[in-house]
Design brief:
Number of helices: 2
Helix content: 10-25%
Structural class: alpha+beta
Largest sheet: 2 strands, antiparallel
Strand content: 5-15%
Number of strands: 4
Number of domains: 1
Strand order of the largest sheet: 1-4
């Protein structure tokens, strides 16, 4: 088996190339650097519906939430007195 994906033939689950699955997942329009990213060693869970789940990193912005670290820093700064 080669490392190149083959669009011309059906591929059984045992023959699917991990890298090819990750490459296909990275083409999804929801995947953007700094927002939703997929590592080279991401877990791939093959489903029974002609596809797979791929582990990804989702950036969660804390700005304006109770988890906002910058808001805590600003409240701890001494006032101008």
């Amino acid at each position: 088996m080669t490392n190149e994906p083959n669009d011309d033939a059906a591929i059984s689950e045992g023959e699917i190339d991990h890298k090819a699955v990750l490459d296909l997942a990275r083409k999804d329009p929801k995947v953007h650097e700094g927002e939703l990213e997929i590592d080279d060693n991401a877990v791939v869970s093959y489903g029974g519906d002609n596809g797979a789940y791929v582990q990804a990193w989702l950036w969660v912005d804390f700005s304006g939430t109770p988890l906002d670290e910058e808001a805590e820093d600003e409240s701890e700064e001494p006032s101008g007195s």
